[in-house]
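Q: Could you write out the predicted structure for this multi-component system? I'm mainly interested in how the pieces pack against one another.
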Amino acid sequence: MQRYVARRVLHSLLAILAMSLIVFSLARVTGNPLDVMLPLEATPEDYARVSKHWGLDQPLATQYLIFLRKAVGGDFGYSWKWHGHSAMGLVMERLPATLKLAGFALLISVVLALPIGVLAAVMKGTVWDSAAKIIALLGQSLPAFWLGIVLMWVFAVHLGWFPTSGQGGLQHMILPAITLGWFQVAALMRLVRSSMLEVLDSEFVKLTRIKGLSEWKVVWKHCLRNAAIAPLTFFAIIAGVLMTGAVVTESVFSWPGTGLLVVDAVRARDFQVVQAVVIVFAGIFILTNLLVDILYAYLDPRIRYQ
Amino acid sequence: MRLRFVSFVIVGLAAGALALGTLPLAGVAQDAKTLKLVFASAGFDESNRFWVVSRPDHLQYDPFLETLLEVDPKSGEYTPRLAEKWSPSADYKQWTFHLRKGVQFHYGFGPLTAKDVVHSHSMMMRPEATATLAGFWRQVERVEAVNDQQVVFHFKRPTTVMPYAASRAGDLRIVSKAQWDKEGQEGYEKRPAGTGSYRYVGRQPGLSVSFERIDSHWNNEKPAFKELVFRIAREESTRLALILSGEAHIADLPRELQRDALKRGMKIYSSSFPVDWMTVYLGGQYYLPGDAAFKADVAWTKKPVRQALNMAINRQELLKTVFAGKGTMTYVTGWSEQSEGYNPEWKSRFDQMYGYNPGKAKELLKAAGYGPGQLKFKILAFTEPGESEGPQVAEALNIYYKDIGVETEIQVLDWAKVREMFRKKAIGCCIWPNIISWRPSEEWIRTSYYSKSPNHHYENEFIDKHYDTLTKTVNPQERQKIARTIGDHLFEEFADIPLFWFANEVVANPKVVGEWVYPGLAAGRSTHFHLVKPAK
Amino acid sequence: MATVTARSLPWYAPPRMALAVRQLRRYPLVPLAMLTFLLVIPAVLAPQVAPHDPLKGSLANRLKAPAWQEGGSLAYPLGTDKLGRDILSRMIHGARVSLVVSLVAIVVGGALGTAMGLISGYFGRWVDAVIMRLVDISLSLPTILLALVLVAAVGPSFATVIIVLVVLLWARYARLVRAETLSIKERDFIARARVAGASHARIMARYIFPNVVNSLVVLATLQVGYVILLESALSFLGAGLPRPTPAWGLMIADGRELIVTAWWVSMFPGLAIMLTVLALNLLGDWLRDHLDPKLRHV
């Protein structure tokens, strides 16, 4: 078991390293940040001066090594757009907002998916099943930003039930969370449905043959273990999807999270912040995958020997 | 049983959703007596370091950080502010400012003295300074504090631009040396002290900046609204939603949405003066002899082609459709009626030389050797927050040029990419519309047409020579003549495709906002919030 | 309990119609019909079907309302956008654009992913480890961020959008094909082929691949919808197809600020995307249920 864990951890670290290289080169490929930072009046001397100040006059390889060395220590440099703020500091400042939104979105998708999934499973094959499927699929078919804008206009402007944007209390979170979460409803609903079906089937079959509690316990232990695997995969995937989906949603609702941060940073060619955000996102994603894999291995011993 | 319940719930929800569709539109939120004024802005570089931020982003400093001179909201003139008197030396190399007595910094950082001015200027000399006029401020050899109320700027070469740079239109914000000594950079980040009638309260990065009114201001400015908040919302529809729902009282909206806001009862508050202009620049015009970057096969290096490209555009229609009719004509790129060297003849001759005449345009092209379908080039478009019309203008140009047999391809890039291209003189392929803010003529000529500046929009020996003379001339009449000569030259040569001047227009809720006069020429465009009077 | 056999049931001879209908019921008619009208016909017959040139507009006709509204006319059934271009024509051509973009992206991404998956599953050991790490990295790349950064570098163009989509899509195919390959390669007929001297490439292409096609088809169908949504999200952020391409996503992005008064500019392309993706998802679901129940976890 330990060897499996060690192997997976090593792989994860490699993945993060590769990510950093990819991001670093991509960020630099987007072009010279000086063209964004400096005013139209800037002279070649100004370019040279500011370039030197930020270390941009060094060759790329040197820049990467410096970046790596500092990054290991947690220092991702200072932002070029939000002057005075450290890049990682900005990400950490905004991350809770995105996590809050993603968490709430997940909650909403669970709240929507659970009853629909249960209904579909219990009324399998009937028109309710198809209707449930269609409602869920509808969520997967809508462009998220379009949904967000429509929701904002209907509920915030026309009805005035919720504020249009920004962060404040619970009411500020609802519209963006629905926009973000609805997409997951279909997948989650399907999962709930199939798990319910399995449980129902085995329940009925075993029920007829129950002689004592022990068998019942076996059924539940068995069911739970198997049933747990599928949602775990789901949550791992969700982590990544919600975070990237947040980019679009945060743009529409001006939700001050990391998604909005990165869009602004890319536009301003603020490499430092872009690097920090991507590494953090990828890190979270890889970490979640790692945890899920380890849990898998714990639940299903066969996997450890692959 | 449980299933029935669940299905009833779902049906109930569906019915509720349908019912919502029949509800009428809620009226605009009524804010009877607000003490808080909220302005929804398209966004700016959020920082308390005024020396790294560009002029338009000084919006965030206008309420609480002041400048030596003021821009009068009605006349646009430079009037006393922190400085009571100012004068240049005979050779215009020294500028002396006499500071007002009794100006106090916020948060108890003491009175304003010449040392604060010296200190504020020194911030512009820091290596990371990327303010718009940082280049200008670096021309200062030294700043001398003669006594507590008198400060002298010693320049390396003569300059007449100093009043502009030291005014509310420029970017030299006066901050407290005492605060810097005591709290350092961190103090500036957390709670910078200024001298304005509002003082800085705090920021929520990505979301807002807040200010609050102070009790006694040295000029007895008493803003009507106790609190002032700048809300940042990148999306135009979000800003519209903010003002319609009553969460914001003033909003910076693109012209398209201004119409919608007007329909719902909002009013437009326009700046007293035109602030920005839009021109379509033609790349590759490097006419200095022996310039390797010059390529003769770029079509518009021939004057008739440039004229044709101008005459193909129906400016009146373009103004009406893309800009909702809100703008005035630009006759020579960069020159407004307030500019040094403005020539009223341009207005009277414009129609004949640049006016809409597709027939003549086609003839000119044919004579230059470009029959229908033979001229192809790219139109570069980009958008900046708050300036969304670039791509629309590009698409309109595409249609106008198609009408005269010119094929164009629109490429949407980001601004930095386009800038890199013209910096490197690699833009002969393309033309591009751009919106730029007003600056004094000498500054504009230097930025755009002087060959030693990085932008190279149109350069030749004639302009270089006259610019050199202009920088050495201090007599105002002489200067007018030289500036006019350069302007005339650009006019005759069809250097580019001038389009329109725009005032700064924001939309406000008439139930909250009464009168508001602001020049638009001050750094930040929407300024003078202390002059916003509440609705009756 | 007595067993029930076919013989003990009364015999009802079903009329021909009912039999035919029951046969048809086996196919996912609704999604297929939707797709034909929303995607296939417009995509293939765009120039014939569209009433106007999608790229030509006139500023005088801008923002006309749809035909049934006040100010609308039948000449522009769904209204015009802010440059006076007919929305219906742009939507029809947009179907073509969406289809081409997704097909190209999926074919290229799928081919790449399949090849990698086959190699990875077949050869195993370090090749497998390396490719799987690549897959992990690829799946952990923040989708939209990657696109933003890439397009900021190179500028929006058809090629860049395809590249971004391929980078994002190939990993899922690789993973799927690898899993299937792993289970297939232990089978007898593979061993027999190896004994008979077939080369690795031949085994992969002629023996393993055909058994993998089913799952590939399901995945591909499900992904077309996803790709269309992704492209529209990219356009919204300014990182999608270049103007003035009549792409649905770009049309929504263009009209988003007009959603109050000129709602038709965004609404109709939005509806088009929604219905098309819905149909594709329904089709994919049906395929998944009917072709191979094992694929529930695809």
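A: Regarding packing and overall arrangement: The two ends of chain A are 12 Å apart (CA to CA).
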